[in-house]
């Protein structure tokens, strides 16, 4: 487990460097207006195991980041389906259950996210 988290962190850091290097701050009209979905995905490192295993506990630090991103459902969706998330082994169908697993009353229930719907 520790090895997979360490590997995820190395891959995520590498992808973040690439994402930051290619980030164009003048282009702020995407799903995540102040950043890119790949860059925002880096904030969800505490969610790594919870996004791969539906039975894993969701850490409070993960819930806090998801709550912040969840204020913009388009951005949260883009982050969950981002290249960074995919390359780190995130399972979208599991990752999209995190707001429910964090017991957010104001989560975007029924929001269509790619081929998935937020429960």
TrEMBL record:
Keywords (A to Z) from UniProt: Signal
Does Signal show up as a keyword for this record? Answer: yes
TM stretches of this protein: none
- Which GO-annotated molecular functions does the record name? fatty acid binding
Signal peptide: which range, if any? 1-28
Bifunctional inhibitor/plant lipid transfer protein/seed storage helical domain mapped to chain residues: 25-109
Q: Which CDD domains match?
A: AAI_LTSS (cd00010)
Q: What start-end ranges are recorded for coiled-coil regions in this protein?
A: none
The keyword Methyltransferase appears for this protein: no
Give the GO terms filed under biological process for this record: systemic acquired resistance
Which Pfam family is an annotated match for this chain, by its short name?
Answer: LTP_2
**Superkingdom of this protein's organism:** Eukaryota
Record-given protein name: Bifunctional inhibitor/lipid-transfer protein/seed storage 2S albumin superfamily protein
Q: Which organism is it from?
A: Perilla frutescens var. hirtella
């Amino acid at each position: 487990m520790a090895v997979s988290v360490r590997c995820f962190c190395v891959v995520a850091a590498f992808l973040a460097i690439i994402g930051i290097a290619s980030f164009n701050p003048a282009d702020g009209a995407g799903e995540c207006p102040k950043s890119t979905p790949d860059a925002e995905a880096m904030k969800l490192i505490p969610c790594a195991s919870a996004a791969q295993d539906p039975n894993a506990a969701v850490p409070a630090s993960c819930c806090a980041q998801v709550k912040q991103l969840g204020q913009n459902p388009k951005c949260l969706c883009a982050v969950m389906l981002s290249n960074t998330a995919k390359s780190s082994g995130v399972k979208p169908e599991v990752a999209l259950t995190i707001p429910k697993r964090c017991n957010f009353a104001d989560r975007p229930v029924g929001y269509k996210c790619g081929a998935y719907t937020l429960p």
